[in-house]
Amino acid sequence: MPSFSSSSSIRAASEQCSLNVKIVHKLYHGSPSNVFHKVKGRLPKELDVLLLSDLIFSIAGSLNGQTVPADTIAHCALMQHLRNDLSANAPQLGLNAISDAYVDNADGHAKITLTPSRSLSHSSRQHAVLVAVDLCYIWKTAGDREHSTNLLSGAGPFAENLYLPFELLLKRVTEQLFNQLVGRYPLIFGTWCRRLDMESEYFPSVARSILEIMRRSPNPHFVARCKRVIKVRLLLLSVHAINIFLDCTCSPSVRAPGIRSSPLLVFSFPRQ
Q: Rounded to two decimals, what is the model's pTM?
């Protein structure tokens, strides 16, 4: 399965200016490839997305159509605002550290590195892996080109000091960005994944109890219904979701497994 990317955007506007943040989510399934294949729409809810290493945020931007240099972005107040908000919300987002901004010599983009606070994810289920999030801040202000040049050099959203009209919009889109990350990747960001970690140790015993109830039940209709529900649950494993999402054909070997051991039930619990 190749590497793939999914796009989204966040918009906010005031009387003085507007901000459109274009977001590219970069992921892979199996082994990463050199080319990211673009996919439309959101990822299926059935698809588990994990984080197997530090996460890279790449930040770019433009002001009234003028691209802002990476070195300017790395040292501007907008970057500092993003890092401060990430640090302030680190416990809720599940982050341990946020690096200083730097310019990656490999591609010339300004970046920061996020280190998760929880242990690196692992799963027996088929899953995708999030490797990077690209953010492009597109600002537009009222005024002529000369005014735009002055903003870019001294008082704009990419200056060393962030003025109130820009800061208010930036706060709004940053809050929406965090909500989007938590909503899209509950196994990486937010408190849900930490609660899951605490509860997951009970999954095997619950699965064994369910199987024991099925084994001892004298009602064949109840047993048949339980098996049917479990099989349907297992068919929603992430490999099925990925294949549909990327318009691929499911392998003939993908089929509903038998109900013979408790690990099958354990795999289905995290998405309950």
A: 0.71
